[in-house]
Amino acid sequence: MTKTFDELWKDIEERSQRWAIPIVQDYKELEHVFNLMKGCKSYLEIGTAEGNGLYVLSHALTESALIYAIDFAEKHTEAARDEVIIPLKQKHDLHFLAQNSHNVRCLDMIRYNQLKFEAVFIDAGHTYEDVIADASMYGSLATKYIFFHDIQLPPVRKAYEWYLAQNPQFKHHEFINSETYGYGVIEI
Fold first, then answer.
1. Distance, CA of 161 to CA of 157 (rounded, Å)
2. Whole-Å CA distances, 105 to 70, 108, 112, 133
3. What Rg, from alpha-carbon coordinates, does the chain have?
4. What's the predicted TM-score (pTM) here?
5. N-to-C CA span, the chain
6. Which residues of the chain have pLDDT under 50?
7. Residue 14 buriedness (CB in 10 A; 0-12 / 13-18 / 19+)
8. What is the pLDDT of residues 34-46, one digit of tens each?
9. Helix (H/G/I), strand (E/B), else coil: 168
10. Can you list the domains of the chain with their CATH numbers?
11. For 100-137, what is the HEC assignment?
């Protein structure tokens, strides 16, 4: 049975209460990205944290979709993240890389396997330098969308605008429904 976005949101609300980890997405913003990703066959997530975004967005993908998730894998989010990753590995071709996203070995592994992803989601570090590094390393792997989360934060906004200036050929739009989060959406 396919879950609706509302059911998925209720799942992450329950998870957040159980794990005492706040939800770091806005309902309407995440729903917008979910709807854009419907039917995608591959997804690269940079910054997974507790796994709520990965859980919801994986339900937009086709069965057996290729998913790579790269995260620093902080200890305090490990159990919650594993609760998402372990069952997703049974449904999708999921690879979790517990590394700093700036680690060139992550990018080398993806390039060695000549992988491209319909959707690339950038949401790891939130400094200007972190976002620039992730966008520069992984943005070229996207074939349909690049999502920048938290563009309401000034360093992320600045990096998003820098990336757009470097790639004027891409269409883009923003979806903002919150004071602190927001998405920049680049269409390849």
1. 6
2. 11, 5, 10, 14
3. 15
4. 0.97
5. 31
6. none
7. exposed
8. 999 999 999 999 9
9. coil
10. 5-187 (3.40.50.150)
11. CCCCHHHHHHHHHCCCCEEEEEECCCCCHHHHHHHHHH
- CA 29 – CA 16 distance, rounded (Å): 18
CA 122 to chain centre: 5
For residue 2, what pLDDT is reported? 85
Query: Given this model, what pLDDT does residue 128 score?
Result: 98
Please report where in the chains the tokens 């396997």 appear, as a residue: 113
Number of H helices, E strands in the chain: 7, 7
- Extract the tokens encoding 37: 């990703």
Sequence-separated (6 or more) residues with CB below 8 Å from residue 17: none
Q: What is the pLDDT of residue 1?
A: 60
